[in-house]
Specification:
With 266 residues, the chain is an alpha/beta fold. The chain contains eleven helices and eight strands.
Length: 266
């Protein structure tokens, strides 16, 4: 598969509504969970280096890409984790590896907490750590939520787009930005930190030291606190290492799969 190619999205029906997802390859399933805002296509650079080695499954979370919010309206990491688990059950996946990018890492960790025996390993790509990162603290979550969910909301949308554009998130539909605000408003970083400390699965951590959203000290602290697994760090590459270091991230994920198959893994 060419790195620029994208597979044809599939549609899965859950009781709450449809789910848009990608399914590429065969073998051990890797379930990818995107960040905020985002979509399944945020892992497209990994498909070529993973081709023929594993089964790569990427989901559009509710309110993003082709999955409508009403499929699973709960915006919290716990609620979105429940959605991911429902998809895993609907697809009949047996103990997949779950991989979260950015704020998708909170969802992946919450899914592991809800089903500790349901996964063979965990991957965290540029994912938040044990304490709130500066960009998360700077977001006026309550204010943005109030302003985007009242009668004046339409007048706020251009401002919302400008706020996200300054943070590097351009060309997203307003609906995805509003859903992002809902998800951030429903997020407890304290609960995430507690779940991180309870992890026992083999865990990959990958990040870049020039990440503009999460301080490298927070990412390094997270890596030190996680269970054993591959640790990938680069001086340059920004917040999307699966794009800027796709071959290395893919190799690390394959290493994670191999480690999780060892007799004493987990």
């Amino acid at each position: 598969m060419n790195p620029t190619d994208e597979p044809t999205p599939r549609t899965l029906a859950l009781p709450g509504g449809p789910v848009a997802w990608w399914d590429v390859g065969e073998g051990v399933p890797l379930v990818f969970v995107h960040g905020l805002p985002g979509a399944a296509r945020d892992v497209r650079w990994l498909l070529a280096p993973l081709a023929g080695r594993v089964r790569a499954i990427a989901l559009d979370l509710p309110g993003f890409g082709g999955t409508p919010t009403q499929t699973a309206p709960d915006a919290s990491p716990e609620g979105r984790a429940g959605f991911v688990l429902a998809v895993i059950d609907a697809l009949g996946l047996d103990r997949p590896v779950i991989v979260g990018h950015s704020m998708g890492g909170l969802v992946a960790v919450a899914a592991v907490a809800q089903r500790p025996q349901g996964f063979r390993a965990l991957g965290l790509l540029a994912s938040p750590g044990l304490r709130p990162h500066p960009s998360f603290r700077r977001i006026p979550r309550r204010t943005l939520y109030a302003l985007t969910h009242g009668p004046w909301a339409p007048r706020m949308f251009p401002i919302l787009q400008a706020i996200f554009a300054r943070a590097g998130f351009r060309n997203y539909p307003v609906s995805a930005l509003v859903r992002t605000v809902e998800c951030l408003h429903a997020t407890s970083m304290e609960a995430h930190a507690a779940r991180l400390r309870a992890l026992t699965l083999p865990t990959l951590a990958a990040w870049c030291e020039d990440d503009p959203l999460i301080a490298p000290t927070i990412l390094a602290e997270l890596a030190a606190a996680l269970p054993p697994g591959p640790r990938l760090v680069w001086p340059r590459g920004g917040h999307v290492p699966q794009k800027t270091h796709a071959a290395d991230v893919a190799a690390g994920l394959l290493d994670l799969v191999a480690r999780s198959a060892a007799p004493d893994a987990g």
